[in-house]
Amino acid sequence: MIALVFIFLLMLLLKNPTLLPFTNPDQSTSVALGFILIFAFLFGKQLERLKLPQITGFILAGIICGPYILKFLDTEQVASLQLIDGLALSLIALTAGGEMRISRLKGRLKAILSLVVFQTVFIIGGFVVFGLVGLNIFSFLAANTWSQSLAIALLLGAIATATSPSTTIAIITETKSQGKYTDLILSVAVVKDFVVIVLFALFLSLSSLLFFPDQGFDVSFLYHILRDLGGSMLLGILVGGGIIFYLKYIQREMIIFILGIAFFTYQISYNYGFHPLLICLVGGFLVENFSPHGDRLIQAIEKSSLPVFVIFFAISGASLNLKALQTSWMLALICVFLRGLLKFAGTYAGARIAREEPGVRRSAWKGFISQAGVGLGLAVLVERAFPTWEGGFLSLVVAVIAINQIIGPILLQKLLIRVGEAGTKS
Amino acid sequence: MRAIYAFGLLILLAFIGTRFLVRKKSLSTLNYLFLSGFVYIFLGLYLGHHGLNILSLQVLAALDPLVSLGLGWIGFLFGFQLERRYLRRFSKNAVGLSVLKTFFVFLCVFGVMVLSIERLFPEQPSYLRFGMALAFALLATVNSPTLLNAAAFVLPSRGDYLYLARFLTSVSGFWGIVGLSLLFSFWHFPQFETHLILRGTLFLCVSTLVPALLGIVFHFLTKEKISEKEILVYVLGLVFFVSGAAFYFNLSPLYSSLIMGIVYSNFTKIQEKLYPLLLSTEKPIYIIFLILIGALWEFRWDWSLVLLVAAFLFARIIGSTLPLPFCRLLLRYPHPLPPIYGFSFLSFGGIGVAVAVSLKLAYPLALTDVFLSVALLAIIVSELLGPKALKIAILKLDSQKVT
After folding, report:
1. Contact call for residues A115 and A351 (beta carbons, < 8 A)
2. Whether B368 contacts B360, CB under 8 Å
3. Do A306 and B236 lie within an 8 Å CB cutoff?
4. Do B62 and A19 touch (CB under 8 A)?
5. Which of A362, B21, B135, B141 has the fewest CB atoms within 10 Å, i.e. is most exposed?
6. What is the rounded distance in angstroms from the CA atom of residue B170 to the CA atom of residue B183?
7. What average pLDDT does range A391-410 have in this prediction?
8. 3-state secondary structure of B281
9. Residue A300: C-alpha distances to residues A95, A247, A254, A259, B235 (Å)
10. pLDDT band for position B190 (50/70/90)?
11. Contact A22/B188, CB-based, under 8 Å?
């Protein structure tokens, strides 16, 4: 605690306006990076003492130090530090893939698919009903007819369906969890990402048609989806093969190799429109299930992942637009509540159909609340497709994500502790 | 996006480099270029905006914190090695010799460079010319133990000369970095046109005390039983913070990180835990740093540059060799110190690059571009000559059986 206060006071002193004439503002990113790394980590440790997840601490530290509260990090610095996001996302996806063992998942396939289907149907259906019943709710997005409200509700529903695999895996890693709840939650979160991406592309084209009927329906999106998903899986196979080859024949400097793979994957996926999450997921999955090196891969990632995770979540906190939360907090709260309710209903129904035990039916929904990068990325795509909304949709989604990203990790951590899976992995 | 691509590329190149560094244990010039990592400066130059432009200026701006991390890391590692129990093993004579050697090299190079810069750049303000000459003189005082360490495996000699040379090259960087911190603290034009001494002293105190305090904080943070992963977060965060803060105030990141390293290594009892961690991260960070430096290098070629390189190297060799017998007399050193022994001290190593770069980054002026070019060229020439010169010096001294 003393170290936390000391480093905080030191940063406060460095940012003192009277010292400004003696500073070089162009060289402020490194000091900000160092500060956020230590501050967020120490803050996370303090929250851990209160039985809360460390990553909630990292996110809160980012929010506190970000451009809207203490301004230790300004918007430009946050943008430049997002270089690390690519690395973190790929590392997280590799870990997630490496954690999915076919032998463990085989018996749960029905439950996984059932939960994915029912959550998706319930959430999108629920948001559509919500949009149509409360027609005026989306008037700030120039939705004047029921078809336009339907379009917005579909997009919101698709985004709300997603659960953040990165947050899920971070909490699982932090709590050292292992077991059927852990497997189920992680697998559903990952598979849902596929489904959400496909549905979102479909709904985006449909929404364009509903808002601008003159443009006609663009079927080329189907080709793009197939190309992106197929290409990502092929690249994932290549990455997985490369890692297996490396682990078998070279085995040196694993940390550097993994970091290099993570960044290259991320970059290639951006240049060609592939999904970095999917590539690394497939890669990790292959290593875990088709070679004897899965454990070594996870160990190598875990060695270097902590600083990357701290910065990743702290920066994701700092990049949350609090002004958006301020302007649309009421509607955001309604959406958060509605999403939670629909997650519960979808999970309950899915688990019941799959004949899962009552505990899973009642409480597994808590594992699906967190929301992060994918939702944000999709909202940005919506903003690009509908520039006349002037940021209204994005603000709403950001506000919803901000709330979910605070409560989601806490709920998941509590769930894993309650069902006795936390601390079971060596 | 290019920044991410460039970063990924850098990491993979660092990996390839690591494999070279680990495998090559010979003392030929080419192998030493790999061993010392200097070949990556050329690679960086090729990838930078003078070459392929993959590491464009925009990308380099985004990767700026990595340069800061590299400088901080070098300073921290250097300070971390300056442990009392290690330094106590050397006699007062050896410490005295390192001070005298540094002093003579400094004096010689400063004299030559003041005259050379005045001749070649008369249009520049006198305080800039003076500052540049000081920077050259400070740069000349630093050496790297890397070559000597490699020689210990390869050369037949195991005598006192090699042992002493390893000590001298290990601590020479300390004097150079301390000198650099004085330059950084007092050289703040135009802010320090008035109250120069007061403000300079204040800046020097701040750049010493704050990292020292952070070193103590680091000690307390790692005092409890914590995992290696947590130590990595603290060490990375503090090095980023200290070197970043130093740059933010135009102070020396090398010096601040060095102080933190010294305080930490002399306080803590977990060196055994930290050493492997530092060693495993050192090589990749160092190579990434060298590639970025190569890319940042505003390379140009003209006669004034060649003359400056020649003058600088000549003065440094003179300062390293000729005063050695005189040093022996002053210190009443037990072994003869013939001038040829000075050829053991040609190599600058990474610390030389770090000194040159930190000055260029803190003072982005046309004259510091010249400084960086001259410094990097002189360092590369020295690294090319270093292995041969060392072999000649140590083998000749061995053959004379003076040890």
Report:
1. yes
2. yes
3. no
4. no
5. A362
6. 22
7. 83
8. helix
9. 10, 11, 6, 10, 19
10. low
11. yes
Q: Where are the domains of chain B?
A: 2-399
Interface list for A 79-138 with B (CB within 8 A): 80, 83, 86-87
Residue B402, pLDDT score? 46
- Rounded Cα gap, residues B126 and B113, in angstroms: 13
* Lowest mean per-residue pLDDT among A11-20, A72-81, A239-248, B157-166: B157-166
3-state SS, residue B48: strand
Q: What is the ipTM of this complex?
A: 0.82
Taking the CA of residue A255 and the nearest CA in chain B, the distance in Å comes to: 9
Q: Where are the domains of chain A?
A: 2-81, 84-418
List the single residue in B9, B233, B248 with the smallest CB-CB distance to A31: B248
Mutate to test the interface with A, among B54, B241, B365 (most CBs of A within 10 A): B241
Question: Which residue in chain A is spatially nearest to B191 when comparing CA positions?
Answer: A22
Q: What Å distances lie between residue B313 and A119, B306, B308, CA to CA?
A: 73, 11, 8
In this model, does residue B360 exceed pLDDT 80? yes
Strand, coil or helix: what is B136?
helix
In chain A, DSSP finds a helix count (H) and a strand count (E) of 18, 0
Considering only CB atoms, B14 lies closest to which of A27, A32, A256, namely A256
Q: How confident is the model at residue A143 (pLDDT cuts 50, 70, 90)?
A: low
Please, what is the end-to-end C-alpha distance for chain A in angstroms? 28
Whether residue B241 lies within 8 A of chain A, CB to CB, comes out as yes
Q: CB distance A31–B213 less than 8 Å? A: no
Chain B (57-76) residues lying within 8 Å, Cβ to Cβ, of chain A: 62-65, 68-69
Pick the CATH number of B2-399 from 3.30.70.870, 1.20.1530.20, 3.60.140.10, 1.20.1290.10: 1.20.1530.20
Q: Which residues contact B287 (CB under 8 A, 6 or more apart)?
A: B13, B14, B17, B18, B21, B37, B40
User: What does chain A come to in residues?
Assistant: 426
CA distance B335 to chain A (A): 44
B221 touches chain A (CB under 8 A): yes
DSSP structure string for A354-374: TT--HHHHHHGGGGG----HH
pLDDT tens-place string over residues B22-56:
555 566 776 677 667 777 888 888 878 887 777 77
Asked if A48 reaches chain B (Cβ–Cβ under 8 Å), the answer is no
- Which residues are CB-neighbours of B21 under 8 A, at least 6 positions away? B34, B35, B37, B283, B287
Q: What tokens appear for B2 in the block?
A: 């290019």
Helix A109-133 / helix A146-161 crossing angle, nearest 10 deg: 150
Q: Give B193's Cβ-side CA count (13 Å radius).
A: 2
State whether residue A266 sits within 8 Å of chain B by CB: yes
pLDDT confidence of A203, banded at 50, 70, 90? confident
Query: Are B237 and A22 a contacting pair at CB < 8 A?
Result: no
Alpha carbon of B372: minimum distance to chain A alpha carbons (Å): 19
Place of tokens 């609340």: A369
Cα distances (angstroms) measured from residue A156 to each of A13, A134, B252:
43, 14, 51
Cβ contact B403:B397 at 8 Å: yes
Sequence-distant (6+) residues with CB within 8 A of B283 are B14, B17, B18, B21
pLDDT tier at A386, thresholds 50, 70, 90 = confident
Picking from A41, A263, A271, the nearest residue to B11 by CB comes out as: A263
Candidate CATH numbers 3.90.1530.10, 3.40.390.30, 3.40.50.720, 1.20.1530.20; the one for domain A84-418: 1.20.1530.20
- The CA distance from B205 to A14, in Å, is 15
Higher pLDDT, A104 or B49: B49
Q: Is the pLDDT of residue B216 over 50?
A: yes
From chain A, the residues in CB contact with B228 under 8 A are: 303
